Amino acid sequence: MLLPSIDESDPHAVASRNVWLEILGQPMYSSAQVCEVLGKKTDNANDFARGLRREGRLLGIWDGQQFQHPSWQFRGERLDERVAALLAELPGKHNGWDRAMWLWFPNELLEDRSPWERWEQDAAGVIEAAREEFKPD
To answer: For residue 4, is it within any domain?
Structure first.
């Protein structure tokens, strides 16, 4: 995936590009790998993963060719059920990048650490930070 060109003098644009690169460097599963990890036998892995994304149980990030699914959403051979609670709080577009950017960008509600960094130690705190940040006015 090609990253858009940015104004190198804009600190926010540079920080955003760095977050994109960090996201792209994370372990990810394709739709076929999602099926494999979950032990799901299907003729159409894309439809299966799409269904999980539509149900709000799986974050997918479009890489320009296919959806990639961050591996931290899985606990062994099952989905981490806390992910659904998190995704329910996050606004998002179909391609997943806006959600991914929120997850990987430092957040003052989480002591300037990224929600992704805090997930393992404090998933409930990350979910609460999302609820607080995106609550309707």
So the answer is: no
Closest CA to 72 of 9, 127, 118, 12: 118
Q: What is the pLDDT of residues 63-98, one digit of tens each?
A: 888 999 999 899 989 999 999 999 999 998 778 888
What would the pLDDT profile of 11-50 be if each residue is shown by its tens digit? 665 566 566 566 667 788 999 999 999 999 999 999 999 9
Q: How many domains does the chain have?
A: 1
Whether the CB-CB separation of 114 and 107 falls below 8 Å is answered with yes
Greatest pairwise CA separation for the chain in angstroms: 50
Q: Tokens in use for 123? A: 């998933």
Write the pLDDT tens digit of every residue in 47-61: 999 999 999 999 998
Secondary structure of residue 58 in the 3-state scheme: coil
End-to-end CA distance of the chain: 36
- Per the domain annotation, does 6 fall within a domain? no
With 0-12 / 13-18 / 19 or more C-beta atoms within 10 angstroms meaning exposed / middle / buried, residue 101 is middle
DSSP string for 97-125: HHHHHHHHS-BGGGTTB-HHHHHHHHHHH
